[in-house]
Amino acid sequence: MKFDKKLEFRRKAFHICLGILIILLAIFISQVKWILFYTLIAGMILSILSIFYKLPLINFLLEKFERPNYIRTFPGKGALFFIAGSLLVLKLFSKEIAIASIAILALTDPFFSLEKRAFKGIFKVKTLKSLLLGLIAGTIAASLFVSPFKAFAASLIATLVESFVILLGTDHVDDNIIVPLTAGTILYLIQL
User: Fold this and answer.
1) Domains held by the chain: number
2) What is the pLDDT of residues 105-133, one digit of tens each?
3) 184: domain range?
4) Taking residues 54-61, what's their average pLDDT?
5) Can you give the pTM of this predicted structure?
6) R_g (Cα) of the chain, nearest Å
7) 3-state secondary structure labels for all residues of the chain
C-alpha cells in the first residue's frame, strides 16, 4: 500500500474536526445520541449506495478523505466507526467520561499516526515518538473534561491497547471503536 502524505494529512484533520464537532454537540445538545444514531444510519446507507453509484458530493468527499482500498469495499469506514464509537461511549458512560473518551479518540490517533507508517506485511509499525505524541495529545484533550491523572491513565491504556491490536495485525476491529471504549472503561473504573 502506497503512503499518500496529503491524503493522510486530510484524514487526520478530518478526524480532529469530527471529534471536536461531536464534543460540541455533546456539550450543547441534549439529544446528541439521536443525532449520532440517525447520522450513522444515513452514513451506512450512503456507504452502501457509494459502492454501486457515484453520488456527486459523497464521491467527491470519498476521493478527498478515504483510502482507495476502502472506496471500493467500505466507503466512509473511518467516519462511520468514529460516529459509532462516540455513540457507544455516550450510551454507556456519564457525559463527562464520554466526552473525555471522544477527546482522546479525536486527538490520540492523528498524532499517533503523524509520522509515516512503515508497512511490514500486515503489521503496521509506529514509532515511539508517534506513540508519545498521541499520548500527550490525548491527555491534554481529555484533561479539559477530567483530571489530568485520569486523562493520562485513559490515554495511556487506550494507546497501548491500540498498539497491541496493531501489532497483532488485526484490521477487523477499528481503532475508532477500541480507543473510546477503552478510554471510557478506564475512566469509569478509576472513579469507582
Assistant:
1) 1
2) 999 888 776 554 444 333 344 567 777 88
3) 5-191
4) 91
5) 0.88
6) 16
7) CCCCHHHHHHHHHHHHHHHHHHHHHHHHCCCHHHHHHHHHHHHHHHHHHHHHCCCHHHHHHHHHHCCHHHHHHCCCHHHHHHHHHHHHHHHHCCHHHHHHHHHHHHHHHHHHCCCCCEEECCEEECCHHHHHHHHHHHHHHHCCCCCHHHHHHHHHHHHHHHHHHHHHCCCCCCHHHHHHHHHHHHHHHHHC
